[in-house]
Design brief:
Radius of gyration of chain A: 21 Å
Structural class of chain A: alpha+beta
CATH class of the largest domain in chain A: Alpha Beta
Order of helices and strands of chain A: EHEEEHHEEEHEEEHHEEH
Oligomer: heterodimer
Number of helices of chain A: 7
Radius of gyration of chain B: 12 Å
CATH architecture of the largest domain in chain A: 2-Layer Sandwich
Mean pLDDT of chain B: 89
Strand content of chain B: under 5%
Number of helices of chain B: 4
Shape of chain B: globular
Helix content of chain A: 25-40%
Low-confidence stretches of chain A: none
Distance between the termini of chain B: 29 Å
Order of helices and strands of chain B: HHHH
Helix content of chain B: 55-70%
Number of strands of chain B: 0
């Protein structure tokens, strides 16, 4: 799967954590909500039809239809949802596609549905058009990259993008501005806790994330996939450990005890 | 893509992205067009590094001005 590198607050050192969390709490930075979704990339081919990819290995294939990409999913219900979402999206958006047919630029789509859910809030059926990007399957390069020029073209597309595709709502570049939570004491308390050393740095970072999500998203922090922000070209993911660690645990196959055989004298 | 189709596309994308100079429009076109179409655009002079418009590019700038009324700023 194509993944973007985002730094979590929990992995920052003391100075970085203070600098970034101050910006998050006191400056009204633009933030982008993260959803539990199925991510698909779409591109307009020379024949004026959309092709879709999900994995780097898909890039070598000239055309992958909505049916093809959906049929690869094990869950039949999700497969049907993805297929109908992509078909509806194709018919709704093809006339206002921001790039010429055959261009190598892609749009990142995220399909949301009540049945596409792990532990976060229940989403309405929608298609999030996240951004325009270039994709690469080379290990030496970032797999998803964008440029100011691509962003500029994408912004022009956002203005002309229809609001719905069939039964799916289209959300083009969803974002919000962080609330200034100066005065809530989050930063002061965090700094004190760090100075006292009563709480580990990871727990302090988690405490900051909890407060940021609670104040900005109005949802329980341990059930929220959070949001991401860009500060000085670096992308930061604001999420609590309780949410992300359970996700990681569940995705790992359960280890069975090792079989042992031998002689005991 | 014929020259006419390319011009229509340039006008569409150029007005949507609110371009004011030829270099702006050229960069946007190069990002959004497939590789074969990209090869029809000029490259910089290898020695002087100056941008010199080819026939197609001159046609696009002229057509853009006629259709939109916007005179694109050309490179020196």
């Amino acid at each position: 799967m194509f993944k973007e590198k985002r730094t979590k607050l929990q992995s920052l050192d003391y100075d970085e954590l203070t600098r970034v969390s101050e910006a998050l709490c006191h400056e009204s930075i633009e933030a982008f909500p993260i959803f539990e979704c199925i991510k698909v990339f779409a591109k307009l081919t020379k024949s004026n039809t959309l092709t879709f990819v999900r994995h780097p290995s898909d890039l070598g294939v000239e055309h992958i239809s909505a049916q093809d990409i959906a049929s690869r999913m094990k869950n039949e219900q999700r497969s049907k949802i993805v297929c109908s979402a992509l078909n509806d999206f194709s018919t709704a958006v093809i006339d206002v596609w921001p790039f010429a047919p055959g261009s190598s630029s892609w749009l990142q789509l995220e399909i949301l549905h009540p049945s596409i859910r792990h532990k976060g809030p229940i989403n309405r059926p929608s298609i999030v058009v996240r951004k325009a990007c270039r994709l690469s399957s080379l290990k030496s390069q970032p797999s998803i990259s964008t440029s100011p020029l691509l962003e500029r073209m994408f912004r022009s597309f956002v203005k002309s993008c229809p609001s719905a595709a069939g039964s799916f709502e289209i959300l083009a570049r969803p974002s919000f501005f962080l609330k200034n939570i100066a005065g809530t004491g989050v930063m002061t308390e965090s700094k004190e806790l760090l100075a006292e050393g009563t709480m580990s740095q990871l727990d302090v970072a988690d405490y900051i994330c909890q407060n940021l999500i609670k104040n900005n998203n109005n949802e329980p922090a341990n059930l929220s996939p959070g949001f991401f922000v860009k500060i000085e070209k670096e992308s930061y993911h604001i999420v609590t450990t309780s949410y992300s660690s359970k996700l990681a645990d569940e995705s790992k196959p359960k280890k069975l005890p090792l079989l042992t055989a031998g002689w005991i004298k | 893509m014929t020259d006419h189709e390319l011009l229509e596309y340039a006008i569409d994308i150029g007005t949507r992205c609110e371009v004011s100079s030829w270099m702006d429009l050229k960069k946007i076109l190069l990002v959004s067009l497939p590789p074969f179409e990209r090869s029809r655009f000029s490259t910089r002079d290898p020695v002087t590094k100056c941008q010199v418009l080819n026939q197609l590019e001159a046609k696009i700038t002229k057509g853009f001005q006629e259709k939109t009324g916007i005179k694109l700023e050309l490179p020196r």
